Amino acid sequence: MNVQSFLITFREALEAILIVGVIMTYLKRIGQTQWNKYVWIGVVLALAASYGTALLFQTVLTGFSMMGSQNYLKIGIMLVSCVLLAHMVLFMSQQSRNIQGAVEQKIAAILTVGGALNMIIHSFLVVVREGVETVFFFAAITGGDIQLALQSWGALFGLVLAFVVGILFFKGTKRIQLKTFFRITSIFLTMIAAGLLVQAVGIMQDIGIMGSMFRTPGGEIGEIYNLTAIMPEHPLDEEQYLRDSGEHTLINGQVGIFFKAFLGYTHNPSLEEFILYWAFYFVIMVLLGVQKKRHATLKASTAHIS
């Protein structure tokens, strides 16, 4: 259980730290650190909400009688976070083209009271999603006794390691130019957003909210390929594969569960998961292209007037 607590805490905390770190680093690089307080407000509110969820689960809920409600909450948070992350990618891309101009003044004009609320909501959703997921996962590995997982050395060590990795990551970005930083973090955030979308689709199909155009002869949702032998998405899948085939997987299931939580990896995607995953990238690329074209047109018009 200690190892499981460590892996859960590490991957959930690391994702939240990296995304919040991207926001904080971005604000620092453009000289708008006065907005940091709104990010921290969102983080603190999310931690309080996560603690409240854990307390509610520990003292009120019994077993998994509320699993359906948990799934709806999880789906909602994933979809909203996906949209906000996509918006952030487009926003960062737009600002990266204005680096040669007065970026600070333009950002100051954009980040109004609505911007402050945006900061709070976005940082809240980023952290609360990880916090609520951690509560659910801890409940799963302990049979509902979340306190047992929270008090384990695994949870503490996972949190500490996540902070260390996050600090090392952002110290390394100091040597990267702002435009390059935008591009790298945009790719990173797009991958996370796509992962959230496909995870939400998978949950909706599992609980029957969403159907599938591709089903097996038995009526079950079909898979377009299966990579269990290469990298299962969960240690339990690895154990089942070993039991059924007598062979070990190429990559450990612990690696798969990290990529599943981090990037939405699944070893046997449905048709809808596969299509929507890549369609999300396509839509983002189209929107970035449109944004770039508008910027070029505006720049040309400004030059012509001048």
Automatic annotation (TrEMBL):
Principal place of residence: membrane
Indicate what this protein is called per its UniProt record.
FTR1 family protein
Q: Record's superkingdom?
A: Bacteria
Keyword Transferase appears in the UniProt entry: no
Of which family is this protein a member?
Answer: Belongs to the oxidase-dependent Fe transporter (OFeT) (TC 9.A.10.1) family.
UniProt-annotated location(s) = Membrane
Organism placement in taxonomy: Bacteria, Bacillati, Bacillota, Bacilli, Bacillales
The membrane-topology field of this record reads: Multi-pass membrane protein
